[in-house]
Amino acid sequence: MSIAAEARQRPARASKKTKAGERRTPLTGMVAWIVVVGICLAGIVAINVALIKLNVELDQLNGQRADLKAEIAFGKAQVSSAGGYARIESEAQAKLGLVPADPANTEYVQLQANR
User: Fold this and answer.
1) Which residues contact 88 (CB under 8 A, 6 or more apart)?
2) Domains of the chain: which residue ranges?
3) Tens place of pLDDT for every residue, the chain, 115 residues?
4) CA separation for the pair 20, 25 (Å, rounded)
5) What is the DSSP letter of 21?
6) In terms of DSSP H, where are the helices of 1-115?
7) pTM over cut 0.70
8) How far apart are CA 23 and CA 11, in angstroms?
9) Do residues 96 and 102 make contact, with C-beta atoms less than 8 angstroms apart?
């Protein structure tokens, strides 16, 4: 038999068909890839939005932290000044009735050193 005769006897190749009986085209595969890439890009955008929200929240918390540190420093300054001379003098006058000594009535005592 000749090659031409064999070609006539061979049954024609069946085209690839899907379950619905439609012929699958290369465009179908491209659409699937476009959908997959689109979903991936949407996921990346969602992650970036979440990161931006977290960065904004972090900035707010850092601001609050700075405010609290300033309040603590102010409180420490108040505590240290509360133990100052003026406070002690006013409390001594109010609670104990003490008054500052008059310099005109002050007497000094000379002590002799023991040799």
Assistant:
1) none
2) 31-95
3) 556 555 566 555 555 555 655 666 778 889 999 999 999 999 999 999 999 999 999 999 999 999 999 999 999 988 887 777 888 888 889 999 998 888 888 888 888 887 6
4) 14
5) S
6) 3-9, 26-82, 85-91
7) no
8) 19
9) no
